[in-house]
Amino acid sequence: MNSSLDRHPARLRRSVLCVPADNVRALAKVASLSCDAVIYDLEDAVSYDNKAAARKTLADHLAKARRGDIEVIVRINSLKTPFGEKDLLAALAMAPDVILLPKVESPQDIQSVVDFLSENDALDSLRLWAMIETPRGVLNAAAIAETGRTRGGRLDCFVPGLNDLRKETGVPSLPGRVYLVPWLMQVLLAARSCGLDVIDAVFNDFHDDAGFAAECAQGRDMGFDGKMLIHPVQIGPANRHFGVDDNAVTEARSIIDAFALAENADKAVINLNGQMVERLHLEQALKLVAKADAIHKKGKKS
Length: 302
Ligand code: COA
Ligand code: MG
What we know:
- The chain is of the alpha/beta class and 302 residues long.
- The chain is 46% helix and 16% strand.
- It is built from 13 helices and 10 strands.
- The strands form 2 sheets. It has an 8-stranded parallel beta barrel, surrounded by 4 helices. A two-stranded antiparallel ribbon has the order 9-10.
- The radius of gyration is 20 Å and the shape is globular.
- The site of magnesium ion has 7 residues, from helix 8.
């Protein structure tokens, strides 16, 4: 099995909804939603004047309302801002699964948080995600991803941020994200080089169903694990697009069954219905079936 499968067997991250930490109506809504993960945002979705209140509102909310099947992510402000350190301490006390760091530009940006977490007795299971949303962040993505491999490294996932990247570069919003695709693929490749997950950027026009569907399809074909979302209406389509294809699952099961036959036990490559199938395909098949099983299990609960 490959390393990314070993690290987190079939963790679903198809739909990753952003919820402003100070929006009590939106916070209350989470309990009824079918997203795989929620990013509780203390950064851009909260005004400067409301940062302290947002920390308190979110802490109160997470103390009483939490669903085991939704990954809990808290996005803090950068440690380079006056809010970052307070956010980090507050987030730590909320015991999330993940802390999401905005505007990560260098390995040091990750390392300083890793050191801070160790000094503050964070659980080993606490993961870090990084927003890659500045020109330097994109250029340094490979080096940043490497921090996930170091001893005690907590980095687990990249999220490219296109709103910031457009602002920083002047590249406009065009159909098909035409001039942004190379940077998205660069971030994706950097993530995969270290076995990290990677989530596609937000789509701002939440009334444009067709545009959103097209961008989900594009993100899936580019290899993303899921999509960062801004509105509940985007959850269903994201779950579908980043889910599994039934025919592909059937084919995956036949690959697993074929390699399980005694006659194929020592073979590296087999002929399956006229197709060459190697053990790397078996790894992919196992991963896909594990994802299908996780979706099935989650569907039964909700
Ligand atoms: N999470 C949970 N619930 C949400 C939500 C979200 N991100 N966005 C909207 N809702 C809820 C609303 O509270 C409302 O429920 P209610 O009637 O019980 O209050 C319902 O969904 C319909 O909302 P709607 O009227 O269509 O939108 P809105 O005007 O309330 O909010 C936005 C629109 C864009 C302000 C809101 O979706 C939002 O804040 N999104 C997240 C933005 C963010 O986090 N940005 C930073 C990262 S990119
Ligand atoms: Mg941003």
